[in-house]
Specification:
- It is a single chain.
- By secondary structure, the chain is an alpha+beta fold.
- Helices cover 35% and strands 29% of the residues.
- Strand 8 and strand 9 form a beta hairpin.
- It is globular, with a radius of gyration of 21 Å.
Length: 292
């Protein structure tokens, strides 16, 4: 197995008529699998969404921007949440991480069946009073197709999204990655037809990685030798929780709630669902917060 570091490559192609991001995210996805102890289907679903979130984070205009992807469905997995910042630091969770289903008709992990029918919400906090929220119906539950539809319907940008996670026989992540390719408004008909033909021949992102292609190789396979890589970002799974942040959340509950906890006479433990860290606060801590 080829070993590459996780990376997002961002740039332009076809005479600056096409914008692209290509990602390799094996370590990020494996870290998430270990943190959440996910089943193969949940690993694939979460890995695809984390990869998409990392790429969309890299598309943010400001360093302080934060983007959240929320998939909510009526299937047994129930939902996926991923949050990313502009540095492509991502965290995520699956509502039901131990989902197991038979393979789909194509013999692949049935992510669409696990997620079911529902909605995708894209929440962008760009420092304004209220965040931007775009919402679309899920078209397949397979993540990439749903994001392709979101870009077309909610942002009116012709976009192709490809995402993949390949597991080995022990269910460790062998390869993961994806791409986001967008046509700019002034793209010519010739460029549009060329890109359609290229994308029609792409069936699986992870097949390229399994065949030894790196992320940079994939850029040129998809977009030609003239594609220009303008930026490299290294995505990582990183939870931004801390004792200080959890403390603030606890204080925000208010005096009455804190006093009830004190009366119980037991320490309070709060759990982070993104990294599974526990933060314990003593009764004396709670008394101090009431005084504050």
């Amino acid at each position: 197995m080829a070993e590459w570091e996780d990376v997002i490559l961002q740039g332009m192609a076809a005479g600056n008529e096409v914008r692209f991001l290509v990602a390799y995210t094996r370590q990020l996805t494996e870290d998430a699998r270990q943190i959440h102890n996910t089943s193969p289907i949940a690993t694939a679903a979460l890995g695809r969404t984390l990869t998409a979130g990392a790429m969309m984070g890299a598309m943010c205009k400001n360093e302080t921007d934060v983007l959240t992807l929320q998939f909510a469905g009526d299937g047994p997995m129930k939902g996926i949440t991923v949050t990313a910042n502009a540095a492509s630091h991502v965290k995520g969770l699956v509502r039901e991480p131990n989902v197991i289903l038979p393979a789909n008709k194509a013999g692949h992990l049935n992510v669409g069946g696990a997620l079911g029918n529902g909605v995708l919400r894209v929440i962008k906090d760009i420092g304004l009073k209220d965040p931007y929220v775009g919402q679309t119906q899920l078209v397949s539950g397979e993540i990439a197709e749903d994001l392709t539809y979101y870009f077309a319907a909610s942002e009116q940008i012709p976009t192709s999204v490809g995402l993949g996670v390949l597991l080995n026989k022990e269910n460790y992540v062998e390869h993961a990655g994806g791409f986001i390719i967008q046509l700019l408004p002034f793209a010519t008909d010739m460029t549009i037809r060329w890109l359609e033909e290229v994308l029609a021949g792409v069936h699986s992102v992870t097949e390229y990685f399994a065949d030894g292609y790196s992320a940079e190789d994939l850029v040129h396979v998809l977009l030609g030798a003239d594609a220009v890589i303008e930026r490299k970002v290294h995505p990582v799974y990183q939870c931004d929780c801390s004792r200080e942040r959890v403390e603030k959340a606890l204080i925000s509950l208010g005096r009455k709630e804190l006093e009830e906890m004190i009366q119980d006479g037991e320490p309070v433990t709060l759990h982070c669902d993104f990294c599974h860290k526990d933060y314990t606060f003593s009764v004396d801590d709670l008394k101090k917060y009431v005084k504050q």
